[in-house]
Specification:
two-stranded antiparallel ribbon, UPF0236, UPF0236 family protein, three-stranded antiparallel sheet, alpha+beta, elongated, 5 strands
């Protein structure tokens, strides 16, 4: 039974990771369409590997030259509060989202915990 549970968790995690990649790449394209073209010059596409709750997700996103600041930037990273150089999703290091610990209990940004939810761990009811 544990082997079946592990396989299901693996498959679901992989599927959600793939969906997250697609959503982030779509969001990056939307940001490209709405950007200030006089300020942000589209330079190229860069790949980043993000550590997320669903494992490592590889995202190809646009890189821009910010003509006002004279630096290169990725609008997707800025909109997510993500430092592409570190490769860690804000939800992993805190941010303003809750986390789920390995035992299935919730940990809020304040540090307050909620009780374990057995459905998150695959425990029998």
């Amino acid at each position: 039974m544990k082997r079946v549970r592990s396989r299901i968790v693996f498959d679901v995690t992989k599927k959600y990771g793939d969906m997250l990649q697609q959503v982030l790449e779509w969001l990056d394209e939307e940001l490209a369409k709405q950007r200030d073209e006089k300020r942000y010059y589209l330079k190229d596409k860069r790949t980043v590997q993000m550590q997320t709750l669903f494992g490592e997700v590889e995202v190809r996103r646009n890189s821009y030259l910010d003509r006002e600041e004279g630096v290169y930037t990725c609008l997707l990273d800025a909109s997510l509060g993500f430092d592409g150089a570190k490769g860690v999703s804000p939800s992993i290091i805190g941010g303003n989202r809750h986390r789920i610990s390995c035992d299935g209990s919730f940990v809020f940004p304040s540090g307050r915990s909620a009780k374990k939810d057995s459905r998150l761990c695959g425990d029998e009811p």
